[in-house]
Each structure stands twice: as structure tokens, then as C-alpha cells.
Amino acid sequence: MLCDLNLQKYKNGLKILLDGNIGTIRYVGPLLNKKGTWIGLEWDDENKGKHDGVYQDIRYFQTKKSKNGSFLPYEVIKEKVNFGQTCKEALINQYSDSFSSPSIYINHNQCVEKVGFEDVTTKQKDLKNLKIIGLSNKYISCLDNHESLSNLAPNVVNLDISINLFTHFKDIIHIFEDLSFLEELNISNNQLSLKDLDRFNRTFPHVKRLVANKMNYDWSQVAKLLQIFPTLNELYLGNNDLSHLALDNFMVNNCVKVLDIQSNSLIKSWQNDISPLAKIFPNLFTLNLNHVCIGDIDGMLHKPENAPYNFECLRTLYLHDCQIRDWISINNLLKIAPNLENLTISSNPIALDPDVDSSTLDPYSKELSRIDWCLIAKLPKLKILNGSTLHLWDRKNAEIYYLKHFAEDYHKIGVAKDNTPSSDFCTLHPTYPSLVEKYGAPDSMISVANLNHSKISDDLIKIVFMYNDKRLVKRLPSNMTISKCKSLIKRAFKIDSHLFGDVLLTLKDIRHENGNDVNLVYIDLENDYSELSFYSIKNNDEIIVKISN
């Protein structure tokens, strides 16, 4: 609703809506060599204005960004300015019985049906029954005295008051302060000053999830939020002004388990900006760093193994588009987050590493790239990679590939004189010794590079594969690995190992003596990186195919 208010209503610091854009009044008065009264605005949209509050070399106000200020003539805009509405008005307008058209309200990645669908109108006609209230982008202002929602909707559990016209944090506190059941609060896209909280002693321990994206807050202001909401489990701070974290400003917080600081462009270093988070939030379970240009993960290079900056509890980490460039970062990640199970690391330059060529895909298994296989082999507890669940076959295939890919280096520099892995090699490949222990040492003559350029042997072996009552005869090169043989068998018999389990191969070997059959021996072909020739498989030998339980 448009308000035709006189000039006295234009108070410094007041937020208004003008032509669909939110701005804060920073100046009211004359301009040099200009007629009439002018309104100086600082726009929430940093790309909206033309200056930072300076006109003809005279500073009238100061914006936070370099070009989000404007001067507008009062006589031109006075009929267009919207000073907003009270929270009570917004609530009644949003959830009145007259609202009947279907719509969807988006609440931080959750789709929630608005009251207004025919099947829920009756149930939530009474505001006191509302559990979820969405008042985002309703231009609620700090005009008039706010009435606490507890008088209208006392049972609210989830409240979204993002993108409104509030100016101070106490403005929103007056709205929710008596909501004793409130657990989730979204205050995003409100440029709220925290100066009025310096002597504010009240806390809200029942609030467990706070979404405060795009509010231009730094870590010192976040520290104040944590004082007000001392038992938060989830904290979302995307698109803010977070940068270097000064530990002196924080007390250890054992409650926060989910921290989202994606798209904070001022964060540049893992060691200075991310590593201290492990000390502040020791029980952190999920950390979202998407679109944060940290470059390399180097925060633990000079710290002892049990340093306090380890993310011991971290299980989920998002590193999409973080400009991670080398594999040393992944090795460090194993030290920093040893229990990591879920990793998103797409759109990083590490995928262009020349030592792991993503173009040389295994023709028998194209579900995961070579890059993925190396990541899986380097992170032994990983269960989900870039949103895809890893199965037993994926891990086994990745670890065997990794063993073979670096087999040549392992035998050149990886084994010391006492037949133990050298420290230099283990620095580059920290999980390699455990893989050798698990699968055995790789053949010194075998490497993926050699396999990719070798010729198929002229003497093919005729092998009979038996799977239940199905029979398949194949001529295969003697240097084919058991791993590739299994991949071929899965496709030929249409076996989905994700559903039924891994493929097991057993050689039915008939031993002869003086031309006579002596006895029947069954040999499990369990070493996936070994070649068929390793098991002395001959023409017309029979291999039994089974599925693991």
C-alpha cells in the first residue's frame, strides 16, 4: 500500500521500497546547485546506485559498497514510496480466509504449502494453529510499534521474515521474542544493525536453526548472534562479509553442527579463514564452502597430528568451485577431516591435473572418472562423492586403479631398502601402504600408462563362463586383468552389482598327470589387479560366476 506521507516521515536510517527496490534513507536535504529537497538512498542491491554518497566533491553520506548510493528528488518520488506495513497487517493479509489461489512458498530449500490450498484452509484458518509462517518479501517495516506474534500465532515453530524493511535487530526481536515454540528463524536479506544489542542480555535457547544469508555481517557480528542464540544446531551465513576469523572474539560453541558460509567472497585462505572454525565449532558435522575461493587446503601442513584445528566430527563437506588446484590439498584433507563421508568437490582445477588424465577412461567402467577414483582411494571413509552414493564395487575399482596407476612410482621411489614404504612416497600417497596391505603389492611392470599403450596379445585364451544355467564363451587376451574381466561379465550377463552385490569368479581347474584327470581344484580369482595369465588359465578352462551376498 502506498503512503503519501509528508517530509517529516523521511527519517535517516529508515528503509523504504521504491519501484521494487529496497533502500535505506541516508540523507534528506538540499544538494549543491540543485533546487528542492533531495533524498539520499543506500540501496540493498549493491549494483543499483551510481556513487557512495558524494556529489560534486561533497560527501553527504557514506555507503558500505562503492556504488550503491543515489540522490533522488523528493517531489518526484513522494508518490511512489512504499513505507511498508506492520507485521500484524502482513500476517492477516497473508493468511486471511479470503486467500484462495494456490501457491508455493520457498523456505530455504524447503517447499511449504501456503494456507490457501482448499484442503488446509480450514485446518489453519485460526492463526493460533499456524506452525509455519512465511512473511518473506512482505515489506514489513519498523513503522509503529510491532505487536509480538505470540498474541496472534503463539504456536509458530518455523518463521521466515527475510527480505523486509527492518533496520535494527531489535525490530525483529519484538516480533518473535515471546514465541516459546520457535525453532527455525530466517532473517536473510535484512540489513540489520546490531548496535542496539550491545547491552541486550536476553537469549533464545529454543531457536535451533538460524538462516542469516546476505546481511553484510562479519565474524564479530556473528559472534553477537551466537550470544543471542546460544544453542543453535544449524547456522546459515551465505553471501556475507566473512573473512579472517579472530579467535579472541569467540567462545567455543559445542552446539553448532551445520555451518553454511558459501559464497563469502572475502574468504581467501584455508589456514587463516577456515581452519580456526574447527576450534570454535568442535562438533561441526556439516560445512558448506561452495563458491569460496580458498585455493589450496594447507591449514594443517605444520601442525601436529592431533592439533586442535582438526575437524574430527566433520562428515559432510561442500567444496564446489573453490579453486582447489592440487592433490596435496586432498592429502591434507585426509588429516584435517579423517572421518569425512560425504564430499562435493566439483568444478575445481584439480580435475585438470596432468598426472591423472580424465580422458583415459576405462572402457569397461565409465560410471566414475579417473579423478573420482583417485579421490575415493585417497579418502578411505568416503561414502558419497559429488552427490553420488559409492558402492562396494566403486571403492574396490577405485582403489585397484589407484594401486596400478602409481605402481611404477611405488617400485621406483616408494619402497625403501628395508622393504617399507618410503616417507617421500607416503607424503604424496598417504593411503597407498594401507591399499598394499589390503590388496597386495602391485606388479612392478604394470602401470595404467603401460596398459593404455600395450598391444593385445596374439594368443587369446578361450574361456567358458558359467552363470547359473547360462553359458558364455569368450576369447580374451592373457594380459586382461580380473577387474576388467568382471566388468565384461557384468555387462554380458546383465548383472547390476549395485543391486545384487559384487561379482565373484572361481576357476574350475582340472589337474592332470600323465594325460589322466587327477583331481578338481577351485581357485578364487580374488586379486582384481592380477592378469588372467597370473592364474595360468588355459584354453577351454571354465570360470564359475557368482554374486556375493
What order do the helices and strands come in, and which of them pair?
Layout: E1 15-18, E2 21-29, E3 38-43, E4 54-55, E5 58-59, E6 69-73, H1 74-77, H2 87-95, E7 104-107, E8 110-113, H3 118-121, E9 132-134, E10 158-160, H4 169-176, E11 184-186, E12 209-211, H5 219-228, E13 234-236, E14 258-260, H6 270-274, H7 277-280, E15 286-288, E16 316-318, H8 327-336, E17 342-344, H9 370-378, E18 384-385, E19 388-389, H10 392-405, H11 407-414, H12 423-428, H13 432-439, H14 448-453, E20 460-467, E21 470-477, H15 482-492, H16 497-500, E22 503-513, E23 516-524, E24 541-547
Parallel strand pairs: 9-10, 10-11, 11-12, 12-13, 13-14, 14-15, 15-16, 16-17, 17-18, 20-24
Antiparallel strand pairs: 1-2, 2-3, 3-6, 4-5, 7-8, 18-19, 20-21, 22-23, 22-24
Description:
- It is a single chain.
- The chain is of the alpha/beta class and about 550 residues long.
- Among the domains are: about 5-75, CAP Gly-rich-like domain (SH3 type barrels, Roll); about 85-200, no CATH class; about 460-545, Roll (Ubiquitin-like (UB roll)).
- Helix content is about 20%, strand content about 20%.
- The strands form five sheets. It has an eleven-stranded mixed beta sheet, with no helix packed on it. A five-stranded mixed beta sheet has the order 21-20-24-22-23. It has a four-stranded antiparallel beta sheet with strand order 1-2-3-6.
- It is elongated, with a radius of gyration of 32 Å.
Please count the beta strands (DSSP E, at least 2 residues each).
24
Helix content: 10-25%
Round the mean pLDDT to the nearest integer and report it: 82
Radius of gyration: 32 Å
Helical stretch count?
A: 16
The SS-based structural class is alpha/beta
Strand order of the largest sheet: 9-10-11-12-13-14-15-16-17-18-19
